[in-house]
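Before surveying the methods themselves, let us examine one representative protein, pairing a chain with its fold in token form.
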Amino acid sequence: MNVKGAGVRRTMAGAAAVAVAFGAFALAGAAGAGATTDVAAVAARGGERGPKPTVVLEHGAFADSSSWNGVVSRLRADGYPVVAAANPLRGPHDDATALRGLLDHVKGPKILVGHSYGGSVISEAAADRTDVKALVYVAAFLPAPGETALELTNKYPGSTLPGALDPVPVTNPDGTKGTDLYIQQDKFHHQFAADVPRDEAALAAAGQRPIAQAALEEKATAAAWKTIPSWAVVTTQDLNIPAAAQRFMAERAGARITEVTASHSVAVSRPGVVTRVIESAARATR
């Protein structure tokens, strides 16, 4: 970890081609009705400050929920209820609509965490919601209305994702043609998860979920970070979203920033750092 001085730098403030809204590894955790039960259990030990909020994690492209396991286990050990949202990866608007359905089901205060493209989704899904107390962006997009993931990635040099992509033509449910984007499996480790053990990265590469190319070109329509306190983990060795782009967005949002020497898969390689940032946001907004 790179700390300004010791290991992690905290400061107050705040695609190079068609494919840059990358996935987050979202989590394997309690979902659905079980989450509500967890909230009730935690409320009993929440003390006079009230129950701990439910942490809702939104993954991005090129991953499935299992990569959040290290974060989930730490949050649960600390008494936080956790829910893993299934991200359709079709476009910020539709994906935010799906996430809002889950947020409506989970009772009580919530902290939303988005990795990579998941940041675009939580920025829209949390708009005008009083139950979302904080937003945490993990190597993620924080778009303003009118911006796209592609535009934000291209704002600064450094992304090598385009050369690692594996585009697959698809037919959409309405009969129109589209393209799903994967990362080539033999390039996944270097591109997406360079600081994750090779065998573990190979499993993630085999189980990755694709994102619709159109999702990276869809303009954001809301920015919940304008009104909800935000935190950001900036990954300085990221080959998907350049660190400079992450920093620009986080500073613009007034997010509390933690920089860490890590790949795009920081939730896998540095789960302790990500957990500490999430819990800091939860404590500060209770």
Q: What stands out?
A: The chain has a mean pLDDT of 86. The beta strands are 9-12, 54-58, 82-85, 110-115, 132-138, 165-171, 177-183, 211-212, 230-235, 256-260.
